[in-house]
Amino acid sequence: MAESSGIKFLKYYLQKLKLFFLSKDILSFLLFLALSAGFWFVHSLGKEHEIVISVPIKFVGLPMNYAITNNPPTEISINLKDQGLRLFTYTAKHNSPLTIDLRQNFHHKGEILITSDKLTTRIAKYLHLQPTTIVSEVHPDSLLIRYEKLVSAKLPVKLNAKIELSHQYMLSNKIQLSPDSVMIFGTKKAVEKLKSIPTELLTINNLSDTTHLQVQLKPVNHVRLSSESIKVSIFVEPFTERKVQVPITALNCPENLSIRTFPAFVNSTYIVGLSKFNTLSPSDIQVYLDYNELKNAKTSKGVLKIRNNSLNISNIRILPVEVEFILEQK
C-alpha cells in the first residue's frame, strides 16, 4: 500500500515538472538565453583573434640524380591575426601539403635558402589570405635545403619470396622479373654497399596456376630507385613421373684409358611437367664416374654421380647408385 502511494507521488511531481518546462515562461527564458548566446558569439567573432595552424611541407623539383642531404622541416607553424569570423576559413584541416618547387632556385652550388619574405609569400598563396589577415609569426621563418649530386648504378633485382606450390604442381619455367634490374641513385658510400635491390617479401600458398603480379621493391635508406615495383611472372603446371634408361659415362679419363662399368646403363626416374614430358634430350641427364676419384680407389666399385642439365626436370633418382668398374688400356 505504501509502495503504491510512493509511485503516485512520483508521477504527480513528474507531471508538474513537465508542465513547468512546457510553460510559456520557461520557453521564453530558453529562447532569450539562445538569442543572447548567439549575439555574444557573433560579437565575439567581430573582435580580432589569433590562431596557430600547422601546414605540412613537400619539396619537389630536384633532378633524379640529386638528393637533399640535410633534414629540413616537414611542417611549418603559422600565427594568423584577424577577426574571428575570417579566421574560420583557415582552421579547416589542410590535406594537401605546401609544395615548394626547387627547380626555379636550383643550381650546382649545393644549397637553397628560402627567406622569410619568400616563405610568407608562398604561405599567402597557399592559404588564399584575405587582405585583413596578418601573418604575425612563422616558425621556422626561413628554410635551408642542402643537396648534392648523386652517383648512379644499375643493380639486379633480387626476388624475396616464399612460394608453396599445390600438390603435384611444379615450376614449368624460371621465375621472370621485369625489369630484372633497376637504376639507383645515392651517395657514393651508400651505392657501393649495395650488390642488389631486394623486393618486399612475396608469400604465396598452394599455387596451382601461372601467375603475374606486381611486387614492391624494398626501400633503401638514402637511395632513390628508378622504379618502385617490378612484374613477377611465375609459371606453374602439373607434373608427372617418367622413367628412362641413361648410359653411364666417364669424366676426366686419360686418353690411353677407358672405364668399363657393369652395368653400362642405369634406370632413371625424374619429375617433369606435362608440357615437357616428350621433350627430353639425351644430354639432359648425365650419369657418370669421375676418373680422378677412381684412380686411387682400393675397391672396384664406384658411386655414380648425377648432373641435371635441364630446368624442366627435377628430383632425379637412379638405380643402381653404385656400379662395378674396370680400367682398360686402349
What does this structure look like?
This protein is of the alpha+beta class and 330 residues long. It has three domains: 48-149, Beta Complex (RNA Polymerase Alpha Subunit, Chain A, domain 2), CATH 2.170.120; 151-234, YbbR-like domain (RNA Polymerase Alpha Subunit, Chain A, domain 2, Beta Complex), CATH 2.170.120.40; 240-329, RNA Polymerase Alpha Subunit, Chain A, domain 2. Helices cover 20% and strands 46% of the residues. It has six helices and 25 strands. It has helices spanning 2-21, 24-45, 84-87, 116-127, 188-192, 291-294; strands at residues 48-60, 66-68, 75-83, 98-101, 111-114, 134-139, 143-149, 151-158, 161-165, 169-171, 176-178, 181-186, 197-198, 202-207, 211-216, 223-225, 229-234, 236-251, 257-262, 265-273, 285-290, 301-303, 305-308, 313-319, 322-329. The strands form seven sheets. Strands 10, 18, 20, 21, 23 and 24 form a six-stranded mixed β-sheet that branches. Strands 4-1-3-6 form a four-stranded mixed β-sheet. The longest helix is centred in the first third of the chain and has 22 residues, at 24-45. The termini are far apart. Pfam families: YbbR. Keywords: Membrane, Transmembrane, Transmembrane helix.
Shape, per Cα inertia axes:
elongated
CATH fold assignment of the largest domain? RNA Polymerase Alpha Subunit, Chain A, domain 2
Question: Based on the structure given, which CATH architecture of the largest domain is correct?
Answer: Beta Complex
- Helix tally equals 6
User: How many structural domains are formed by the residues?
Assistant: 3
- Estimate the mean pLDDT confidence: 83
Instruction: From the alpha carbons, calculate the radius of gyration and give it in angstroms.
Output: 40 Å
Under CATH at level 1, the class of the largest domain stands as Mainly Beta
Uncertain runs are: none
Which strand-content bin applies to the residues?
over 45%
Helix content: 10-25%
Largest sheet: 6 strands, mixed
Distance between the terminal alpha carbons, to the nearest Å?
129 Å
Extended strand count: 25
